Amino acid sequence: MSAKPKIAYQPRDSWLHQLHPLVKLSWLIGFSVSLFVISSPVWVLVVLLLAVVSFSLVGLSLRDDVRGMRFLTITGLALFLVQILFNHSGSVVLHLSLGPANLPVTDSGITNGIYIGGRFLALIFLSYLFVLTTEPSALAYSLMQVGLPYRYGFVFITALRLAPIFEVEANTVYQAQLTRGVQYDVRSPRRFVTLARQLILPLLVSALSKVDDLAVSMEGRCFGKYATRTYRRVPSYTRRDVLALSLFFPGVLALVWFALQRLL
After folding, report:
1. What CA–CA distance (Å, rounded) separates 92 from 191?
2. DSSP 8-class letter at 20
3. How many Å apart are CA 109 and CA 124, to the nearest integer?
4. Per the structure, how many domains does the chain have?
5. Residues 90 and 220 in one domain
6. 185 in the same domain as 62
7. Are 257 and 35 in contact (CB under 8 A)?
8. Distances from the Cα of 135 to the Cαs of 61, 82, 129, 131, 218, in angstroms?
9. What is the Cα–Cα distance from 258 to 236, expressed in whole angstroms?
10. Largest Cα–Cα separation, the chain
11. 193: which strand partners?
């Protein structure tokens, strides 16, 4: 049995799933920009908390639906500890005794650690929320409605749909090679290159086969012959989207004002 891809749309009946794709994209961009413009650890923690809570509200799980959750958490903690250990500006809060070394921990190091580590996790979780709650075809159709040429839209939707397929195939090849006695825990650099080549080669053959089949199918349907195209299903705006946008634009104005205050 093939593994279920985790970096893919997860259908649910939540309020976030039902929002228009462009509305969700606007909120994603707005929150992401705010994390860089507003250099406040409090704001970062607020956005991180909203992202974590949103997973539960839309019927998703950080542990089950976010790939590499342990690695992401360790990376965020590592970014926090780097600032704690090497940022010595500001007032000293306490001293860490690490063997013969006595490292000072400053308030600036703690603040920057929370800001940088929390911002990393917030960006990852927000991006996962968008990917897991947004159907790729609906997003591509929405972008094409606002002016994206449908040829580029087709490239976009094809990449989104093939990524989880290749993820599953990579896991299938990996498990098949393990059953045949291939040892992936060997730490020799030359052995690592050999194993990577053995893993990538079947995926490359599969990708070329899929691309060839897709090209034949597109030619048979005269793809690209006409300047415009029709859509089987066109995403429409609802009152829920209008409400989300009515909350979004004041936030954008506040963000612009905050950015101008920093420049002046």
Report:
1. 48
2. -
3. 23
4. 2
5. no
6. no
7. no
8. 18, 38, 12, 8, 22
9. 33
10. 74
11. none
Query: Would you say 55 and 129 are in contact if contact means Cβ atoms under 8 Å apart?
Result: yes
| pTM reported for the whole predicted model | 0.77
Tell me the per-residue pLDDT of 96-132, one tens digit each, with 9 for 90 and over.
776 666 777 888 888 999 999 999 999 999 999 998 8
- Please report which residue ranges of 14-96 form alpha helices under DSSP H: 15-18, 21-37, 41-57, 62-65, 69-86
Q: Which residue has the higher pLDDT, 1 or 204?
A: 204
Q: How far is CA 12 from the centre of its chain?
A: 18
CB atoms near residue 77 (< 10 Å) = 13
Nearest 5°: phi and psi at 175?
-65, -40
222 conformational bin, left if phi > 0, alpha if psi -120 to 50, beta if neither: left
Rounded distance between C-alpha atoms, residue 129 and residue 56, angstroms = 11
Same-domain check for residues 100 and 11: yes
How many Cβ atoms from other residues are within 10 Å of residue 261's Cβ? 8
- Identify the three-state secondary structure at position 87: coil
Same domain, 260 and 148: no
CA dist., res. 254 & res. 261, Å (int): 11
- Of 171, 164, 158, the C-alpha closest to 213 is 158
Rounded average pLDDT over 219-237: 76
- Given the structure tokens 């012959």, which residue do they identify? 225
Residue 107 lies in domain: 1-134+237-264
